[in-house]
Amino acid sequence: MKVNLHGQVALVTGAAGGIGQSIASTLAANGARVVYADVNIDAACQCAAATPGAIALRMDVTDEAEVEAVMAETLKRCGRLDILVNNAGINTTAHRVNIDRFPAEEWDRILRVDLTGLFLVSKAGAKLMLPRKSGRIVNIASVLGIVPARLQCAYVAAKAGVVNLTKAMALELGPQGVLVNCIAPGSILTEGTKKLFYDADGMFSERVQSMLAHIPLGRPGTCDEIAHATLFLAAPESSYINGAVLPVDGGWLAGYIREF
Fold it and tell me: Which domains does the chain have, with CATH numbers?
């Protein structure tokens, strides 16, 4: 898929690797000038160095002052912000347990990054877009924000919050020219999911086939497949899509595939 993003500036959070890096590089390949924002500034700098015109800025999405400073620096160096992709997020690996044993501090950590961080970045980014009455915000949620799963109470709560926050933002910002949409990835092949499922020594590698059994395509998605969905929502042609939640999940949410 190719679209014309020349002259536009995009900021991607969590852009130093995985899905975020794929999104950032895909937007850049279609003409956007990209800000790689990540708490891991060394990795972000390496990514930006390989992308003509890109810059890297350290951003801890939970630090409101730092978020505001990054937006100010983006405006100073790039002159505008057209596309904001809220990709930064975390999940737990050590605490896959029922809610009665889920640590409160782990709940706070995940909600702070996955939901509050997205709110802070969106709030700051919208301030740059609204004066121009134009912009796109794409939030990365999860299928587990639509259909919850066991043993991940904080993550599913945060991602469900992202889904409804997306719709609320679309209602508020859409009339002012800023379109807000959301992508709900299924199981995507990243370094994190490899450690959990897809490596031979992954924490839950023995459950891979059980997990894939209800996905019609029978495989995990790729980071590039999420990036292309983001590109679609960021494209100028997608000008009447606002408040949408787009599953990119191989059919995960379509219904039951197993026989009863």
Answer: 9-186+224-247 (3.40.50.720), 192-220 (no CATH)
Alpha helices in the chain (DSSP H): 18-29, 41-49, 64-78, 104-111, 117-129, 153-173, 191-193, 208-212, 223-234
Within its chain, how far is the Cα of 41 from the centroid? 18
Q: Are 243 and 165 in contact (CB under 8 A)?
A: no
Positions marked catalytic? 155
pLDDT of 205 reads 62
SS3 category, 167: helix
**Kindly report the CA angle at 197 between 195 and 199, in degrees rounded to 5?**
60
Residue 117 has a CB neighbour count (10 Å cut-off) of 25
H/E stretch holding 58 reads strand 55-58
So what's the pLDDT on residue 95?
A: 80
Q: What is the pLDDT of residue 211?
A: 78
Beta-bridge partners for 83: 10, 136
Give the residue among 192, 250, 198, 200 at the shortest CA–CA distance from 18.
192
**pLDDT < 50 regions, the chain:** none
